[in-house]
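Our consortium's second objective concerns turning raw sequence data into structural hypotheses that experimental partners can test. To show how far this objective has progressed, the report includes one record in full. It was chosen at random from the queue rather than selected for favorable results. The single chain below, 156 residues long, was entered without modification.
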Amino acid sequence: MARVTDRGIRESGAIDLSKLCITEGEEVWMVFIDIHVLNNAGNIQDAASFGAIAALLTATVPGKREGRGEDMPMPIRDMPVAVTLVNIGGEMMVDPDLDEETVCDTRITIISNQDGSISGMQKSGDGALTEEQLLKAVSLACQKASELRETHLLNI
């Protein structure tokens, strides 16, 4: 879970790393995100990824407190969003609960950026996806991610 969340954020270029430089070649701000699962009712990957980007959008770099200049918002330039789909009986379903995850033969998480590009993808399970199913999953994941950004992340 942590690896997929990290991959989506890193590969999207969500954080403008150049703005985290304190002294070129010597000091930089480091970003850590810890995920603690309190309740797994299913689709924990999407919840973790969504929580991570929401945390980054509301984070402050503590320059003043650390004697490194002024505080500044975390320099975010993209909002990657993970959307997980499962294949049950040949049908792709979005946002599976724990029971659906248990009976599916294939699960795929697709992390897309604001421009619709893909910054991460992880498939699990014994089943396979056809090319048509994969393309449908990517299209659906990008559509749902866009909706999530508009209804939730843009209001943070």
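The partners drew two points from this record. Residues 131-151 form the longest helix (21 residues). Helices lie at 2-12, 44-58, 98-103, 131-151. Both points have been shared with the crystallography group to help prioritize constructs.
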